[in-house]
Write the structure tokens for this entry.
Amino acid sequence: MADAKLIVVDAPNDWLDIDHNRYAQIAQMIPQSAARPILAFVRADGRHGDTGYAYRRGRFGQAATVDTGWITNEVNSDTYKKIRTSGYSPLAHELAHILGNSGHVIGDEKNLLGNSPVTVNNHITKEQCETFKRHPSITPL
Ligand SMILES: [Zn+2]
């Protein structure tokens, strides 16, 4: 990625505590010309258990949500942190979904894209790394 920008915006339509049903609605408000991936940090009230979500290319075509990741404030809760491996980043996890055009890695081996608190850590495979490099937003050095 050439660079990253932090843009702070007010919640549209007074949608303060949102769940995944609002992500697509908010994504529709983002200009299609905006550089992607876009990672949004949003507030959730915890009722839905939402912590993060990513819309990747292979699964969602070219909809407004493609290459967007959504991370809620729930990842800052003690409950969330307690069950995650030290060094694990929910931001990196959602970005890996986008760059890897990948769902979760299923199995006993720990991985950044593990599918449960027991199987996630900050490890990526060489194959995942090569896939990430091929994402259109990645500029080769
Ligand atoms: Zn995930």
